[in-house]
Structure formats: C-alpha cells, structure tokens
Amino acid sequence: MNDQDITAAEGFGKDAVRLDEGHVVGQGGIPDRFENPGLPPHVPRGADLSEAAAKRAEKQVAGLFTLSILGTVLFVLAYFLVDIRTMAYLPGIGDMSLQHVLLGVGMGLALLGIGLGAVHWAKTLMPDEEVVEMRHPMRSSDADRDEVVRIMKEEGGKAQLSRRPLLKYTLGGAMSLFALPVLLPVLGGLGPMPQKSMSLTFWNGGPSGPGEEPAFTPMRLMRDPENTAIKASDVTIGSVFHVLPEGLLDLEHGVLEEKAKAAVLLMRLDPSDIKSQKELDWGHQGIVAYSKICTHVGCPVGLYEQGTHHLLCPCHQSTFDVTDDCKVIFGPAKRPLPQLKITVDDEGYLVSAQPFREAVGPSFWERG
Ligand code: FES
After folding, report:
1. N or C terminus: which one in the chain shows less Cβ crowding within 10 Å?
2. How do residues 296-345 score in pLDDT, each as one tens digit?
3. Distance of CA 331 from the midpoint of ligand 1 (Å)
4. Among 148, 71, 154, which Cα is nearest to 106's?
5. Is the CB of 296 under 6 A from ligand 1?
6. In the chain, where does DSSP find H-type helix?
7. DSSP H helical segments within 162-311, as ranges?
8. For residue 117, is pLDDT > 70?
C-alpha cells in the first residue's frame, strides 16, 4: 500500500497526500490536519522544589479559606444584628439597606474565598501530572474502577490533606459554614415581615422610618420631579400628574425609599363619570388621587387611558377603573389602588386630607 492509499484508507479522501508522520496535506498544499504535537516539557513548580515555597502557598490558600469564613461570619452578623431599615449611602448607587449591602458583601467573600482558595491550592500544591486517557467504552472495566478508587486514595494522600492539617481545618470550616448563607434566607426569610412599613408613608406626616409615628399634618401635593405645588385650577379634565408629598424631595437621605411608597397619581374626571360616592367625597370636584404602587407586586402604575379612565400597570397588565374606586378590572392584581383623600387649602392648592387608610403596594400576610 503506498502513501496515497494509506491516507484514503484513513478517511482523508483520495486527493490527500501523506507527506510524513507529522501532517497530512491536500493536493493544493493546504494542511488538512496536524498531528497532536504532544505536551510541552514538564516544568516543576516552586512548591515542588522548595518546602518553603510550599509552606508559603499553604498559608496563602489557608488565608483565602479564612477570608471565606470571615465572609460567612459577616453575613450571619448582618442578618441578625443589622436593622433592615438602616440605610447606607453608596456613591453612584444611592441609598440602600445597609443589611442588604452587608449580606451581599458577606456572601460574595464567602464564595470568592472558597473558589480562589481551591484554584490556588490546585495550581500550587496538588500533583500536576499530565494524564492522557484513551477513548474506551463508557463503563470502565471492574479492574479500571478498582484502579480509580486506588488512585483516588493515593492521590488524596498526595494532596497533602493529612500532612497539612491547617488546610484541612480551614477548608472544613469554610465549607461547613458556607451552607449558612444558603440556609438562613430559606429558613428565616430575608428580613422581617412588612408589618406597618407599607401602612406608614410620608403622607402620614413625614419620614416613615423607624421611630415614633409622625402626627398627621395636611401636605401639599407636589409635581414629581419639579417639586412645585399644584393648584386645583391647574388640573384640567383628562390631565394626569405624578405627585409626591411636600417635603419628600427635600430629604437628605431615604428619598428613594419614601418615594417608592408615597408616589401618587392625580387625575381629573368629569364628576358625572365617577360611579363611587366615596371616591367623589375623597376627591375635589372630580380631582382624585390614587397610590401609584401596583397592588400586584409593586410596579409603578404609569399608563392612564384618558378615553376609558383606565390605569394600566405595565408589568403584568393589571388594569384599574378610575371611575369606580380604582377597582381591578383585568390582570393579576387582587386589590384596588388605595385612594388618598384630598382637599384644597386657603390658597387653592391641593393638600392631603388624611394619610392612606390602608397599606399601599402588594398584598402580604400582615396587611390587615
Ligand atoms: S406589578 Fe402590576 S400587574 Fe404585576
């Protein structure tokens, strides 16, 4: 058999010509394939040559596992000791719950420490022999399986777990504690139940954070984001305003959290279109104000269909009828949008007449 017969028999086509053991080319001289060049020569690592380098690597790996342990401890302390309503200002992001920030940092360090520690351990201390396994049937023979078990035991010893108890204990600590960040949120939730947090809004008289409940004072309805007061005469039939309580945008901290609960939509309808007497009484000459926070899962309800007097939530298409107490007429929301009772002050500006009478936003166990 000549070279051309050999390459045809190997499946490279009758036009392929075998030139030597290294590679096969087609008749145009373009390589069809290259032989496996094999592995580069083995270069021993520092830790293979010097016990001092191995010791240094061991400390680095142990340091990374310790970082993981500290991350988990931070997660647990933040979970139990930090009030979820304590806010922290993060440059470029804004106000965030300090507990959520610490939970994220703790879990990140816990994961990163284990991951980096394992990689560094593998690269510096574990055996670095290159092994080639030829293709074989999917199920290994019993002899091979026994051999694998034997090698695992032998190589496990070479990984120096028994020789280096510091690694064994720090890895054990990191792995066993790491289950906590997964288990705690599953068993205990990511914070307390909302309780009164969604019943109290800035409309109650000021910031709704922890502390004493503020005494109600009427507040002007302010345009968002212009922060200018609205006169009843400014609101024409068919118009819609995005509204916040007076003073909210002047807060130094917590603006986003307060805004997320106190945002309101203000609309004016022809009073003869309004079906509910309570809605008429809580409004002013057809001007009505409703919470903008969807009662499904809390998206801002932002689409007003002037012709039908429907409010639409863009998230899952819940639709509320503004002529009838903002009852749900379509979609997954289960409750009407809460109405804010309004009136006008001596100068003709729209003001709140009382805070919301029920919790705003999604349904939850303690809504009551
Ligand atoms: S959040 Fe509004 S419909 Fe789902």
Report:
1. N
2. 999 999 899 988 999 999 999 999 999 999 999 999 999 999 999 999 99
3. 8
4. 71
5. yes
6. 3-9, 46-49, 51-81, 98-124, 142-158, 165-188, 255-262, 277-282
7. 165-188, 255-262, 277-282
8. yes
